[in-house]
Amino acid sequence: MRISGINIPDEKKVNIALSYLYGVGRRNVVGILKEAKVDGEKRAKELSEDEQKRIQHALEKHKIEGDLRAEVLGNIKRLKEINSYRGTRHSKNLPARGQRTRSNARTKRGKRVTIGAIKKEVAVKMEGAATAKVAE
Description:
Blueprint: E1 2-3, E2 6-7, H1 14-17, H2 26-36, H3 49-59, H4 66-81, H5 85-91, H6 106-109, H7 120-135
Antiparallel strand pairs: 1-2
């Protein structure tokens, strides 16, 4: 089954498989399936053509995939343009919702990079290399 350019896994139950779409979560799926009158416990490959059409029709009322991504990116771009606090945090790739950054935020800030502190063994090697260059 394919919905708005995304392949839905055939072996998964419909209530799980629909959550593969961006903008459709476990909570939204319940309402969508109720509106489409489809049993969520069925596997995606067991759905009839009529059931697939009803699900797609129910999904048309929701913003999913490209439309939702464009809206979110537009919102972030607007925050950056008006120079709000959240916009500046987005542009600096830092957490925008008040999380601490002193000890955490590794996923947002990236791998640790030590600045200014080096181990004693490394410092000794660097001194040895510097004296060898001077001797030449």
